[in-house]
Amino acid sequence: MAGDNKGAVDLWSQIIATESDDQQQQQQSTAIVYRRHRRNPQKENPPTAKQASCSVRVSLVPGKRCSWNRSLFTRGRTSIACDHYRPKKEKPIRKNNKPPLAKPPHNYEKERAYFDEVDAFQLLEESPSPQNKTWVMGTKNSLLPSHISSVLRKWLRNRSSCASSSASLSKILETTEMSRESIILDFDGQTKYNSTFIGSIKETEAEAEKDSEDLGFAIRNLSLSSRDSLSEEEWDPLLELLKVCGQSSPLTFSDVISEYCELETITKVGEGTYGEVFIAGETVCKVVPFDGDSLVNGEIQKKAEELLEEVMLSLTLNDLRGNDAHFHNVCPAFIRTLSLRVCDGVYDDAMIRAWEEWDKKHFSENDHPTEFAKKQRFVVFVQEHGGQDLESFVLLNFNEARSLLLQVTGALAVAEAAFEFEHRDLHWGNILLRRKGSETVNFILDGKKMCFKTYGLAASIIDFTLSRINTGESILFLDLSVDPGLFEGPKGDIQSETYRKMKQVAEDCWEGSFPKTNVLWLQYLVDILLQKKEYDRTSRDERELRLFKKRLNGYKSAKESVVDPFFIDLIAVSNF
Hints:
- The chain has 576 residues and is α+β, with helices and mostly antiparallel strands.
- It folds into 3 domains: 146-233, no CATH class; 236-327 and 335-385, 2-Layer Sandwich (Phosphorylase Kinase, domain 1), CATH 3.30.200; 388-576, Transferase(Phosphotransferase) domain 1 (Transferase(Phosphotransferase), domain 1, Orthogonal Bundle).
- 38% of the residues lie in helices and 13% in strands.
- The protein has 18 helices and 15 strands.
- It has helices at residues 2-7, 11-35, 49-54, 70-74, 109-126, 146-159, 167-174, 195-211, 213-220, 237-244, 253-257, 304-318, 349-362, 398-419, 494-506, 516-531, 539-552, 558-561, and strands at residues 183-185, 191-193, 267-271, 276-280, 283-290, 337-344, 377-384, 388-389, 431-435, 440-445, 448-453, 457-461, 469-470, 475-476, 571-575.
- Strands 3-4-5-7-6 form a 5-stranded antiparallel beta sheet. A 3-stranded antiparallel beta sheet has the order 8-9-12.
């Protein structure tokens, strides 16, 4: 038996040796596979430290997230491609023939737990369960009403820079108690809040009031008993619009126009994508259709809730003309809204005549008003007459151009301070100019009275369709992300480029506050004054305008821009 044992083959040793060879071949195979991405290793420069830190391997599985830890996705996975064609690697010879040290088996529990967590997250995100008491992600159901979530998102963005932020508000946003037990999602998509969740919000509001008066006011505005907590059936935007306009039912055009002039004297003075502009006596009437099924000049008609927001925004800006509630920030440069009316029915015959006369002279781009349905609804904005728009107005000299820029910049600065206002569409058709003889105009910015030199020029800002404002009770804005065509204008066009720059600043979060958009429109106006308008100016004047535009790059708001040296000799400041 002893002789047989000497000649016997140790099968166990061969198996161990074979597995060792296979592991070495697999490691070599893996290295070869990843080297295939480098076409010429000898000529290729070594990656920099920044490139090495940014190299992230993207999973090819649809819908999977990119790995921030590449080793977890590659560890233990080897290539099986063409193993039998690769050269065998000789076994390393150990010195003194010492047996190899036994390595403890690798513990993959951390990796397994990681993948279990990722798989569970993706399964929950991609295939939400239809059962009750389920935390639904990626659906239209939101944890909080829309206006609450938008305010909270804004608070989170400003949280890092707000020194007086209360930790109590963080409990609303980050507490683990807002979990599956706090919310029940029904099949009809409505969200119900249990008493524990509502109670926790009330406790948090009480703590916030102790920490900061301003923050307490913001939290009180997040009350779940607000309009957004009501069902759509309980809130009718048309009735709300009628209420704001002081009406119980729509009027006819003749009823509205006859308040300001004889019907035969009405004349058309302009038009826009969504409406027509008429002069009625000493006032201007902007007529905007809404809630209809037909297209308006190729565009979908506005809804009642959209017109309601523009109406509320116009009335809010009226407050900047000075009253008991707003004396800390005052300016007269936003057009005054005198009245608002809801009408239905067809255009009056006098309005159709005025429209056709304007069409003969200017070749209207809008649809003929007779194409509207008989029961079409309209909102009529009755506003003061602000003069001619900048496009058609004839500037006389460089001082008038500077006065124009100062009045617009000052108005935006005051509205920023009072209401976080952004115009977002301040092209040269939305600035009206007229000469009224007064050499100065008074503004108040954060309690400081400023007297602007006007050189007899008065500027008024109009059209707040795309604007954003914080009224103190709600944030009114138009979601421009639903209108991608706005950002697809011709390259090199000043106005189109301004829309695209504005989108980069806002990052399609249009409910947020981004006063830099006002600065972008100030730069647009400088370009207009340099390239599109003719007036008496010198090369030195043009150089000053270019330097002013360059300095605007460093400003984050119109409030910062108004103190630029370009305006230093036009402003006199005094405190109350």
